Structures are given as structure tokens and as C-alpha cells.
Amino acid sequence: EWHWSLRLREKPEEVIGVITLRRGERSNRGFWLGLEWQGQGLMSEAADWVTDYWFDVLGFEVMRVAKSSGNPGSRRISEKQGMRLVGHDVREFVSGRAETDLWELTKEEWRKSRGRRAKN
């Protein structure tokens, strides 16, 4: 697993969110961001950075992400990144069981969406 904390430049001692990558077949990325900082593009920026890391540094071919169906902000990040909705499930979250959307993105799709040539 790979973990990063999100901090503001002005207050580097304060953690405002986290983003994680993990190996596995079902869900490779997860994140949370404090309510005060949502809607400002901070998690979109972090998600783009770690998605680059997943494909370009770690060399994985596919990223799969599971997220609560009731979280439209998280859904927008997946859509902006060009992910495809590939299924539904029910999962346990900190707040209890919830409907979950399963998203997927290939390295080739990511590079196309970012205007990059796929590496061989």
C-alpha cells in the first residue's frame, strides 16, 4: 500500500485528507477529505497525481475503484478521470453498509484522457 496525507501549503502541520493506493483486484484507490475543503478541486488534483503514480511509476495496467453510490463528489472525480462504471456491490464502510459503485480505468485510457502516448 501507498499512503499520502493532504495538507495545505499554508498549514503543513494540519492533515485535511488522505489518499491511498493498494494492490488487489477490487479497489486500488481510496480517499477522504474534510468537509471544509471539499469542492475546491483539491482531491481531483491529488487523485490525478496518484493515478499517474499508479500507472507511470508502479506500472499497473488497470485501476479499479469502489466508492459509495451516495457520494456524488467522489463520482465526479471518477468521471473526470475517464473511468467507466463497471458494476455495483454492497460494502461495509465506517458508517455502515452502503451501495457501492465499481469503476475502472486502464493505463491506455488514462494516457489518452491526459493527452499522452501509451508506452510499450
Structural notes for this entry:
With 120 residues, the protein is α+β, with helices and mostly antiparallel strands. The protein is 27% helix and 42% strand. The chain contains 3 helices and 6 strands. The strands form 2 sheets. Strands 1-2-3 form a 3-stranded antiparallel sheet, with helices on one face. A 3-stranded antiparallel sheet has the order 4-6-5. The longest helix is centred in the middle third of the chain and has 16 residues, at 42-57. The relative contact order is 0.15. The mean pLDDT is 91.
Outline of the structure:
Helices cover 27% and strands 42% of the residues.
Give the ordered list of helices and strands: EEEHEHEEH
Instruction: List how many beta strands DSSP finds.
Output: 6
Summing up helix and strand content along with how strands pair, one would put the structural category as alpha+beta
Query: What characterizes the major β-sheet?
Result: 3 strands, antiparallel
Q: What are the low-pLDDT stretches, counting only 5+ consecutive residues below 50? A: none
Shape: globular
The N- to C-terminal Cα distance equals 25 Å
Strand arrangement within the widest β-sheet reads 1-2-3
Mean of pLDDT: 91
**How big is the Rg?**
14 Å
- Strand content is 35-45%
